[in-house]
Amino acid sequence: MDSLTSKTYADDVSLLMVLMDANPFSWDSLKSAFPFSNFLSHVVSFLNAILLLNPLNHVVVIATGFSYCDFIFDSTTSQNQSQHCGETLLQRLEEFVEKDESMCRVSSVHGSCFSLLSGSLSMALCYIQRIFRTGNRHPQPRILCLHGSPDGPGQYIAIMNSIFSAQRLMVPIDSCLVGAEHSAFLQQASHITRGVYLKPQIPPDGLS
Questions:
Q1: Key word DNA repair present in the record (predicted)?
Q2: What's the rounded Cα separation, in Å, for the pair 115 and 64?
Q3: How confident is the model at residue 83 (pLDDT cuts 50, 70, 90)?
């Protein structure tokens, strides 16, 4: 197997792994400042722009929920290549949120509603590793975390392990925080992997 340093990237071709916080309980607390529908419309526009920049660009979206994580969009599948990104994404996201809510017991949702960031990071890195093993040339991978939930202290070790794995694979982790608080986990992730950490100011109209 080739060493990590001998891997060569396909010129101007990107693999973007988007970890989208879809925790319904966190978004419920943010709806007055930044409704989820507004957030989603910007995400869809951004993903379509990435795919338009180069038809060989590869976009994968992983939804991060309260109870579990799942792949909800992959631009390389035959179904997604023939239609608008938003159509598939919205359908799969709706199914994801319904399942996530059904898996939560009301008694277990109190106080801070953490999202399973550790799970989605692990899934993204496993996907990237699979791409690495397909040949000597592959898209340039990058992870983008679109996050609104507070940090879950119990996930610290798992998240740090993922961060160091990304560093070893030379995969930058970019972070965009749309919640009320900064994320110490994602600040470390972006710093260690030489990614970008951003917490934009949400205007009163919620970026509409």
A1: yes
A2: 6
A3: low
pLDDT tens column, 25-74: 888 777 767 788 888 999 999 999 999 999 899 999 999 999 899 999 99
Of 8, 134, 111, 22, nearest in space to 73 by CA: 22
Helix (H) / strand (E) containing 28: helix 24-30
Q: What is the pLDDT of residue 135?
A: 76
SS3 137: strand
pLDDT digits over 95-135, tens only? 998 888 888 754 455 556 789 999 999 999 999 999 988 87
Retrieve residue 170's tokens.
């030379």
Which residues contact residue 121 at a Cβ distance below 8 angstroms, ignoring those fewer than 6 apart? 19, 143, 145, 159, 162, 163, 166, 173, 189
Do 58 and 42 contact (CB within 8 A), yes or no? no
Helix (H) or strand (E) holding 64: strand 58-64
**Whole-angstrom distance, CA of residue 70 vs CA of residue 38:** 22
What are the structure tokens assigned to 141, written together? 């991978």
Kindly report the CATH number that applies to the domain delimited by 4-104+111-198: 3.40.50.410
pLDDT over 80 (residue 11): no
Most confident of 83-97, 110-124, 153-167: 153-167
Nearest to 55 by CA among 30, 80, 26, 37: 80
